[in-house]
Amino acid sequence: MKQVVDINRIFEENNAIPKSKNGAVNYIAVPEENFITTMANISGKNVVLVGLFCVQNFDGHPGFSLLYVLEKRNYSNIVIVTRRLEQPLAGSVATLFPSACWFEREITDGFGVTFPDSFDKRHLFLHEVYPEGFHPLRKDFRNQPVITSEIIPVDNEYVFKKVTGEGVYQIPVGPVHAGIIEPGHFRFSVIGETIFNLEIRMFYKHRGIEKLAEGKTPQQAVQIAESISGDESAANAVAFCMAVENTGKIEIPKRAWQLRTILLEMERIYSHLGDMAGMITDVAFPKGASPFYVLREEILRMNNNLTGSRFTKGIICPGGLTKDIPSQAIIELSKYLEDFTARLKSATDSIYATSSVIDRLETTGVIKKELVNLLNITGPAARASGVPIDTRFDRSYGIYGDISAQFHKRIAEKGDVLDRFNVKAAEINDSAMLIHYVISRLDKGGICIGIEISDGYALSLVEAPRGQNLHWVNIKDGRIDRYKVRTASFCNWQAIEHAVLGNIVPDFPLINKSLNLSYAGTDL
Amino acid sequence: MANFKKQFLLYTPGITEKLTFRDEEFEKLGFKLKAEVNSIFGRSLSIRELDSGSDNAAEIEMNNLSTPHYDVERFGITFVASPRHADVLAITGAVTHNMEIAVRKTYAAMPSPKFVIAIGDDACNGGIFAGTYAVNGGADKVVPVDLKIPGNPPSPLEIIRALHGFMTVLSQRKTKHQQ
Description:
heterodimer, A: alpha+beta, Beta Polymerase, domain 2, Cytochrome-c3 Hydrogenase, chain B, B: alpha/beta, Rossmann fold, five-stranded parallel beta sheet
């Protein structure tokens, strides 16, 4: 019998590598007979399953391979455990790593690889309208329209968990909601006004992003990365380009990274401003929300000034940027940011001075710290629950390694809506300072290098406004063979199911807004 | 009577903060739009927004229409919570298969006469998703569409400009009908 692989040792041995360059990635093949034991040995020991996906014809293995992306807190390297399957069948790790549950269901839908011992075998992104036995990510399926059913027979309906008992009733909400928001279904089980259980069903917006990228050149695929989630287009474009650049170990010009950083932080600012405005709107205080909306609109206009797009689309490309940002626009931004922080402070101060708002935010929707590793909760949601993780600092990329000494992670302890509000306010402030800092040291060099696309695969991790986004690209013959995206939203949705428990239904919109997750980024 | 007011009107409304921004083009369009809305829809145009698979940037711009810079409620535009209250269904996204039934049901729930507007490239013709397994490819594949506003996403100004154009067409149609 082969020896069980000691994943912990791999983390120890490779930790010495500096934290810059997005951390080292070690691929370790673990034989099937030892796989579950290997994973059981590291479960619960500060090792987090941050990604799990399937690749067909990976590294010379003709069938399906599963790649388990593992992060260990405070360690700089990433370990990717590869599991080569002989048949489309595998043992589940969802009881060892709860974050695996959605990943495994995703793999079953995409590839038809089943996990017979899993506690949840329901479909994930393929809803009832899709034909049985349809697995779009398999290589033998050419991307083309499929015939779907126009009605759903009752016995084919998705089964929600049933909570029974005296006085328990269900509230179904969605997919079409009352406001201007994205579609998703929330099934509440409620006693009186108190939420007893919440089950979230997503993937109404499944657009087949991963399959769409296959066969495209990396240059063509940037637009797809930008469409993952409109308000994270810079983060996803950078993450995708960085993965492509990592396959060829390409270094891009410093000025390109500086400008990318400005765009990434602009995105964080407008995204967080929208979240804060949303939280205040959802407690019915529009006067308090307005200043945040005003600031956000100004930032979107600044984006337009910088890039020609309010959502900074179409400027990031593999090798750098497609065009330079005019110095006039940068000067205007720098000038604009001068009184930005003071205006932000006056907006937040007016919220802090309104006790009826604070009453609603405080102690509402607590995300427990112990759930963060289990569910791979990421971004401001994790930081507000006392877990100091931020990819910009932990596995810095681009120029973040040089500037992270000037800044620090924003942490809060209680994990309620107010803490998330505070963390986001502090991060907007930091981002504004960071942009200022970068502008004052802006390089004069080029913005793009012609890159030669080399075959191979690479991982990249980027801290998007909502948390860590994971991209993995496999390039064959200069074209994308497999593109895996896992956004922060995908993981954090499961946090909401826990955060709402014991809260009242009218607080749900507020809790939801305090995380403000992307449905598009989850559904892909 | 005037005396009475003087004596008893103790409450004077506070003055809200003055806004420092003003988009001349947007304001002009807005008031023209208001005049058209008044004559065709009797003061207000109710829009039900429906995301059928956008990348969410279009939703942000739609939401922006109600924020201080734009505040389109001044021009008789309201976003309503139910399709039953709507004159117009504004669809974003390429209509995914997973949303198709919901889109049909939402359209069916609207009272007639009803109009559908496709907002953004994906809703107009499927955009980059056209011809793939997960989408129908454009809102008009599922419900009749009266107006298409392209863009990735269209800006608030572009949306209002298109709405104004649409109102002009409706107004001409109405005059023709009356003749």
